[in-house]
Amino acid sequence: FVIIAKYCTPSTWANRPPDMANRPPLRLVSGLPVVGHFAENWENVQCFQAGDGDLIIDTYPKSGTTWISEIVDLILHNGDTEKSKRGPIYERVPFLEFAVPDMPTGTEILNTRKPPRLIKSHLPVQLLPASLLEKNCKAIYVARNPKDVLVSYYNFYHMAVVHPEPGTFEEFFQKFIKGQVSFGSWADHVKDWWKMRQHRDILYLFYEDMIEDLKREIRRVMKFLGKELSEDIVEKIHQSTTFKAMKENHMANYTTIPSTVMDHTISPFMRKGTHGDWKGYLTVAQNELFDEYYKKEMADTDLTFRF
Ligand code: A3P
Fold this sequence. Notes:
Layout: H1 2-7, H2 10-14, E1 27-29, E2 32-34, H3 36-40, H4 42-46, E3 55-59, H5 65-76, H6 81-84, H7 89-92, H8 106-111, E4 118-121, H9 130-134, E5 138-143, H10 146-159, H11 169-177, H12 186-196, E6 202-206, H13 207-212, H14 214-225, H15 231-240, H16 243-248, H17 284-297
Parallel strand pairs: 3-4, 3-5, 5-6
Antiparallel strand pairs: 1-2
């Protein structure tokens, strides 16, 4: 097995026969394609009761959710790294829509906790449970350029085995630009949250800015959360949330999640953690097609991305 794991490339693994019990097809809920298991818990997600002070961390998948979650948890615990190691990130910041066999659902975990809670979600802004809006919950949104999202998502689909088989990169590319992947259209997601920030208490961040100057972005999050921390603590948070530190941290890197949910022998969750990895994936033709897709989708917004 070790030899197979060492010499099989991700694409060889992808060619193995699909395990349909673990890899059910996506299902449409409220018009949104989601992982089959997630669809079964959808009613509980929509009925979720938010409380005063709950903070929602929302992203389109693969845009830096885990990164910002670790940063927020550390800020709220004054940079205490022992406290941030009290449990894996998916327990410290429960994923609202999460539902897989033999694990507590996101809503089950959240319902046992008292507000103020940290809540992770990938929901488009229109599908947020009404109570989050009624309670005026603050939100932090992170967006990432779609070419890197596409590449990250393709690798994630392989290893997060609750997703359908992604097929070849070209096949996944086609599905992505048609919004036929879990959580739907990237463009609608980032644009609708961008619009919503004018009306709600939303901090809208970019993955590329976090790569460029992580400390600056940590300070922006602190300001948004009304937290003042010393320069030493900011430095400590910075050191604990570099890609290298998080890749080595079992409480942040998802290695503790059952392999029936994520199989790190296929591809690690903490994969590259860079800006521009897409350059090694997209062919010239795919890149041209993607640029057309981006131009068309982003024609009606002032939101722009760095590639
Ligand atoms: P790659 O697959 O490009 O490496 P999410 O948490 O939303 O699923 O996003 C996962 C992506 O964020 C992965 O991207 C992962 O490596 C990257 N990531 C996680 N922690 C990071 C960090 N501290 N610095 C940079 N990138 C990070």
